[in-house]
Amino acid sequence: MKHGGRLILTGWGYMQYVISAAAALKALDFNADVRGMSQRRLPEFLSGLAGERGVPKWGMISILGIGLTADPARLADALSKLKGKGVMVEWVSVIPLPESVAPALDGVLDVHVCEDSLLVATGEAFGVDVAQFAPLTQERGRVPADFRPYFKLVEAAGYAYRNYQDEKLFSTAVRYIARGILQAAWEPSVKGAVAHYERYGGRELVGKSQAIASLQARINSVAAHDHARVLILGESGTGKETVALQIHMKSPRREMPFVAFNCASVAKELLEDRFFGHEKGAFTNAIARTDGLFSMADGGTLFLDEIGEMPIEVQALLLRVLEGGRFTRVGGREELACDVRLVTATNRNLPALVRDGKFRADLYQRLNVVQLRTPSLREHKDDIPLIANAWWRRFHGGRVLNGGQIAALMDYDYPGNVRELVNILDRATALEENDFDSLMREHKEMNADLLPAKAEGAASGPGDAGAPDDLEAATRLHVRRVFEKCDRNLTRAAEALGVSRNTARKYL
Questions:
Q1: Taking the domain 210-373, which CATH number applies?
Q2: How far apart are CA 196 and CA 182, in angstroms?
Q3: Given 35, 211, 375, 490, which residue has the most CB atoms within 10 angstroms?
């Protein structure tokens, strides 16, 4: 039976895996395919190969560092079938074969173990000197400056796979490292992928809970229908813009612009100009023609956050462009066509705003074609270790938090959701604080005044410290409490307080 070439499988996330795969690839004179693989997916992947008809694509498969305990029975069955088809499989590791799986894999798997490091084990298994790759095994700060961009490339490859199911970038990263191709010679598409990661990597939708899995499934489903409008609901800090970005990047529009805009960030008099742009001379200081958001996003996706804050006078303008796909610049006469997928988000109760006459019912129906909801962090606290470690690895050279630090982070409900969790990790980094028990105590004390001082209806005694005696301090405290009660929405807080947005912002 005539077989194809070689396949190298290695794990995601750690440079030791990638460097070892690069060393193996070079030892094979670059005549091999490379794929990233998780321990969980390995039995399923090998079973799929074993079940294929005809001559297998690869005659030799090298598994570098991936654990073998996910589904031992299925793994053993797949390896046995592959051996029957003449496919050899070897496992290179720094730990011995676990006793729980050793009997089942005996005779169907070649094992190479070296307890020094995976790179050294790879060198022994492939009979190659790996000294040139050794510098990359150090912490990023100690790696020669020319090689440091490889770390960012590997992180971007993991991000591309997790979020967009793109496996090609990982293989490219391994090949670049194997050949010593430095950043200046990277292909434009690779540089673009790294730039995308640098911009959006901190807003990744991380988690394995049922809540996140359900949200991901809905995103994957709606993304393919690139004209369907999407309304995203959820508390502040739950990642609504991240969801919008994923909808865009998983859609046929992924190569076109993604433009995000916060509807509460501009006065209502300026919104028409921001949406549609203006012609030269349309008003004072209009010294040149300017494109608006719909022109900037043409062919791609326009994300409008805090859509519930849009004044009702402006809503008619948005409705018109949604109905006809055409608009006119401020001061212009020509109607312009645009092809934009609109994704909107809010933490407001839009049906209630419709009932109160503050949001147009016809616009609500136009926006609410597909509705997604981002869960609060309280609803998927089991994901806190994954979210925290994903952030920590990115800014701490691949290191993760210890058990005590994770336990301290878990002991809190996060009213500010993922955004608040990230702020805490950012503070720990800035202060070089490793004692997370102390960190969380300080955080709770810092935010104590944002929560009600006592149960509603409880009487205040002479010594009550719930409200300051100073009028200015008491006013600030009250404004902060109303702000939190309104889900940190400035417009709603100002309405509840009976003051202007500027006044509320001053006290905040």
A1: 3.40.50.300
A2: 19
A3: 375
